[in-house]
Amino acid sequence: MLIGPKERIVFFGDSLTKRTGRMDSEIPADRYAVSYVESYVDLLVKRLLIHFPQLEFTIYNRGVGGDTVLNLLERYQKDVLPLKPTLMFLWIGQNDAKNFDDSRFQKGVSCLLEWCRQDNIRVVLLSTSAHRDEHKMVFLERADRILLSLSQEYQVDYVDVKTPMLAVMEYNRSSQHPIMLFTDGSHLSELGNMLIADTVYDYLVSHQ
């Protein structure tokens, strides 16, 4: 199991990590404006909690909707370091793909991984999510090549969450009852988040 007892875990990323900030709203109509508010983080943590109750880990969700890797760099000192995490799940790239620059993305992720290494924070790096827009998928695939290369360079764990999604999307092409992985835009449905959570969970329990 990759997570140890008393682990302090920070989930760092964009809206795919946070899912929505609406549940923090004091306005009821805003709080309940979306039908599904859990992210893969919520589902993953529930699995860890019931299967490994002895770990007694601590979690912090520091996802912010719309963030790029540059936004994560700007937030790292304020949103991550004060938590003194021992482990980070890093999921980024969807918003970078809207105006993708290979060099900028590579330098940004490399800087984050270097900071984490200096601050003794182990990293689990996730591939980008799949997307229904084939044009955007081209840029997401470029991002994945960079992420995989950096995971090898910095010797951090890398979880391919895209391939299981692509398998479901391929099934959907000929199915009369497609499995809905997405809601709006890049955001994932309950089933989409469940697939991500299961993929990450399986990786965690099969690695040391």
Question: What does the secondary structure layout of this molecule look like, with pairings?
Answer:
Elements: E1 8-13, H1 15-18, H2 28-31, H3 40-51, E2 58-63, H4 69-80, E3 87-91, H5 102-118, E4 122-126, H6 134-154, E5 157-159, H7 162-172, H8 190-205
Parallel strand pairs: 1-2, 1-3, 3-4, 4-5
Helix pairs in contact: 3-8, 4-5, 5-6
Q: What can be said about the biggest beta sheet?
A: 5 strands, parallel
Distance between the termini: 5 Å
Q: Write down the overall geometry.
A: globular
The CATH homologous superfamily is termed SGNH hydrolase
What would CATH call the architecture?
3-Layer(aba) Sandwich
Q: Major sheet: order of its strands?
A: 2-1-3-4-5
Q: Into which percentage range does the β-strand content fall?
A: 5-15%
Uncertain spans: none
Give the CATH class.
Alpha Beta
CATH fold name? Rossmann fold
Class based on secondary structure composition and strand pairing: alpha/beta
> What is the total tally of β strands?
5
Q: What oligomerization state is this entry in?
A: single chain
Rounded to an integer in angstroms, the radius of gyration calculated over CA atoms is: 17 Å
Output mean pLDDT.
93
How are helices and strands ordered from N to C? Answer: EHHHEHEHEHEHH
What count of domains describes the coordinates?
Answer: 1
Tally of separate helices: 8
Residues in helices, as a percent range: 40-55%
